[in-house]
Task: structure prediction
Amino acid sequence: MFDLDNWQEIYGSIKKHKLRTLLTAFGVFWGILMLVLLLGAGKGLENGVLQMFSNAARNTIYVWPEITGRPFKGLASGRSIIFDNSDEAAIRSKIQELGYLVPNLNVGEKVNVAYGNKSIAFTLKGTHPDLLHIKNMHFTGGRFINRLDLDNQRKVVVIGSRLKEILFNHSDPVGKYINIKGIFFRVVGSFSTDESATQKEDAETLFMPVSTLQGTFGYEDHLSLFTLVPKAGIPAGTVETKVKELLVARHTIHPEDREAIGSFNAEKEFNKFTSLFMGINLFIWIVGAGTIIAGVIGVGNIMLIIVKERTREIGIRKALGATPISIISLIIMESLVITSVAGYAGLLAGMGIVESVRHILDKENIKSEFFKDPHIDMQVAFTAVLILVVTGVLAGLMPARKAAAINPIEALRAE
Result:
């Protein structure tokens, strides 16, 4: 393997046919390059799409009231369903698989929020302390709503980064009072968000205890939405089905009415996207492998030509006592050198391009909801290197066996 004479012969053979070797090696280089670029782009697309699930637990369920689509027990269709606090209590007591339940009350229109001489309209939501166990929130100051706030209907709010920027000019808002629809509320915390669409919405939102919002602004015990997470090991679909069945029974809805209660199962959608990207990655590997194989076939053909050109030389070697193994190893080594050098160059070039794109996105602060953080996993890089070694051996195997089978007498007669 490390015979200096063999390496000198390989170098001499490659140097003698530089253009032919370069064109042959380019096929392998291009195959690895395309594989790495496609995998990097696929990872960026996957990260971009899946970031929409990063704002909350990936097994979160959302359930909200709609309008009935079928009459039932004397009640007409087109009836608006309204959730209330008793629905929350029923879910907590009867759904044993439930991990966390967050009742939400969303004010339909934006409300006017004022501090000092600054005023702007923002989104107001009533929520529950357990939201912290579901939503990813990065606090820049203070705290979130706690149980005492909820039980005592305290007039406190937690504000998003956009509201902090506009009203407080990035200064610490904790402990200060803001005016919401003529009523003063104490700011107890502020949080920042990432750049996905839902998190941008959160940045322009004020959260207060749901009980405070109900009692202060006349919403009685109404609720807009339930956010739920199952216990560990429980499929989200199980909780979703049981909660909807319970609410259907409580609000006298036809069991087959699919319009009365809406829901979104994040776990189900996440699994769909995961399966989709598994298929995309498989397709990328198939395309990349096909391109690499095409390049390897080119290397194999060149090695056959080399064997034919060196038939007399191989015959003389065998006549002087060279073993078949030494002949085979020489041909395979030359094939391995061509494929490995070309493939490794393609691997480095591909990783360089992917990292350059990643650096530009970070440096220029370019954000996209569908493309984020393209990169190549080290496992993928090692797999590509392994492919190079295997394909290099395979490319030279058939020509090497043909060379080893050359008859010395016939070889000496060859022109």
In short: The first strand starts at residue 61 and ends at 65. The chain has a mean pLDDT of 82. Residues 108-216 form one domain.
